[in-house]
Design goal:
This protein is of the alpha/beta class. It contains 15 helices and 24 strands. The protein has a seven-stranded mixed β-sheet, sandwiched between helices. Helix 1 packs parallel to helix 7.
């Protein structure tokens, strides 16, 4: 049984959860401790007690720890990638790449521990000096989703530690294996007891203790919009600092002048890889008239060539949906689209096993045409390998449709027109804009985040992470 890490000790929980491989539901990945509210409060207590010392640690000490974590993750990428693919259903190449990205994130923020700067300026008053510095904020609760079970924890935990905060980490219930493996690496990195704590368990059980405790200075959350909105409402009454990433309904615009091969690659990569289980997935493909039919035919041809199978099998392009609940949600959206009059151009079929006979939660990549932007399939985030094509007259209509959504995370365009590309970059209502690049897939050293209902609070990743994980102090000194 894999235990929780609290105050430097591995502790059994109040219960145990079984981790099941979605590619082969006969395969049990392991059993993982489930905390109760008392144990969650114990983790906050440990982080609170450890903060004073860690917040005054040297940049070199923090660099050494984070750099060691990054080195270990990169060295173990094959082993941990296999674990990630096994428990979450991401293909083995994607999973191994995700572990490598986590290692790179830790190494980047190791450097940021040394690069944190301030300002020394002259006061408007004679004989007075002014210093502007950044300081850690305190205990940070990090709540992460199941779709990137090691990269998203990395880009929350690494900056929190780099800037001198302590952390209580609550991973998604579906992917405790990757979280536990990351916790083990951190535990062996030289961190003092209590600086990092792992609390596995159901959000409904441990969530309030990890987010409502007055000793928690900040909560960083990635997950559903409904949960994020509840957290924000509760935090507003306590003054807790909040960082929320809550999904998207991302458009990919394809104009008449687009390179067809590039457009198809961007669409398929954005919408269907990682089984479409990415908040940056492009599920609305907005295509102008003259290229529409050729684009749809080319996408269908590409989808026909993809292999849906066990995530760890050689040659698999798309793995399973993460669990039976998510599969039912995906199928409900498919049924809803058909009921509203959308044309099923490809897929739409769930399969109880792959070609090798592995029982799992398999769903063929699904493409709808003859849709419009008022359909449910165009308004709500499906979070599966499902996309719909919306036909438009021209660029102006495409931009209007792209922006007609409550979300604003990632937005893409495929075009060879510099005029349209430049206009789209300025006018797309999204936090991230891609030109002839897939909407899913971002670098670790630049900001990540969106607008509208997609995000709340400062950006994640890159140097902008300091805005969330530190507070600014202005000090005046008389000569």
């Amino acid at each position: 049984m894999h235990a929780n890490l609290i105050g430097g000790q591995w502790l059994a929980g109040a219960g145990v959860a079984v981790n099941v491989n979605p590619s082969d539901t006969r395969d049990i990945v392991g059993e993982y401790a489930q905390a109760d509210p008392a144990q969650a409060r114990q983790a906050v207590d440990a982080a609170s007690q450890a903060f004073e010392s860690w917040s005054h640690s040297t940049p070199q000490q923090r660099f050494d720890v984070l750099d060691a974590v990054g080195t270990t993750l990169l060295a173990r990428r094959a082993e941990l990638g296999d674990l990630l693919a096994r428990e979450e259903g991401k293909t083995l190449p994607e999973a191994t790449g995700e572990v490598a990205r986590a290692g790179q994130i830790f190494k980047f923020f190791a450097g940021e521990a040394l690069r944190l700067t301030g300002d020394a300026v002259s006061s408007v008053r004679p004989g007075v000096g002014v210093e502007v510095t950044r300081e850690p904020i305190g205990v940070v609760t990090a709540i992460t989703p199941w779709n990137f079970p090691i990269a998203i924890p990395a880009w929350k935990i690494a900056p929190a530690l780099a800037y001198g905060n302590t952390v209580v980490f609550k991973p998604a219930e579906l992917v405790p294996g990757s979280a536990w493996a990351l916790a083990e690496v951190l535990a062996n990195s030289g961190l003092p007891a209590g600086v990092f704590n792992l609390v596995m368990g159901r959000g409904a059980v441990v969530g309030p203790a990890l987010t409502e405790d007055p000793r928690v200075a900040a909560v960083t959350f990635t997950g559903s919009a409904a949960t994020g909105q509840r957290l924000a409402a509760a935090a507003s009454t306590r003054g807790t600092k909040m960082q929320l990433e809550m999904g998207g309904k991302n458009p990919l615009v394809v104009l008449d002048d687009a390179d067809l091969e590039v457009a198809v690659h961007c669409a398929v990569q954005s919408a269907f890889y990682s089984t479409g289980q990415r908040c940056t997935a492009a599920s609305r493909l907005i295509v102008t008239d003259a290229i529409h039919d050729r684009f749809v035919a080319a996408v269908v041809k590409r989808l026909q060539s993809l292999t849906v199978a066990d995530a760890r099998s050689v040659g698999t392009d798309i793995g399973p949906v993460v669990d039976e609940v998510q599969l039912r949600i995906d199928l409900d959206y498919i049924a809803s689209a058909r009921a509203e009059g959308a044309h099923l151009a490809f897929g739409g079929e769930a399969r109880p096993s792959d070609a090798q006979g592995h029982p799992g939660h398999y769903l063929l990549p699904t493409l709808f045409t003859e849709t419009h932007n008022t359909m449910r399939i165009s308004r709500e985030e499906v979070f599966g390998p499902v996309a719909n094509v919306i036909r438009v007259r021209d660029y102006a209509e495409a931009l209007a449709v792209a922006n007609d959504t409550q979300f604003g995370l990632s937005s893409g365009i495929c075009t060879t027109s510099l005029k349209h590309a430049s206009h789209f970059k300025r006018h797309a209502q999204a936090g991230m804009v891609m030109v002839n690049v897939a909407t899913a897939g971002v670098d670790y050293h630049v900001p990540f985040g969106g607008r509208k209902a997609s995000s709340h609070g400062p950006r994640e990743q890159g140097r902008y992470a300091a805005e969330f994980y530190t507070t600014v102090k202005t000090a005046y000194t008389a000569a």
